[in-house]
Amino acid sequence: MKRLFALVAVLALLAGCNTIAGAGRDISNAGDSIENAAKKK
Prior knowledge:
Elements: H1 2-40
């Protein structure tokens, strides 16, 4: 039972890291789009 809990905890942490990394990329892309739009004006 402890092994199962440890495995689930590790998988949750890995999934969380991927989600945070994805959100960071999305925010970065949005910032780049805003910057590009500002340069065109």
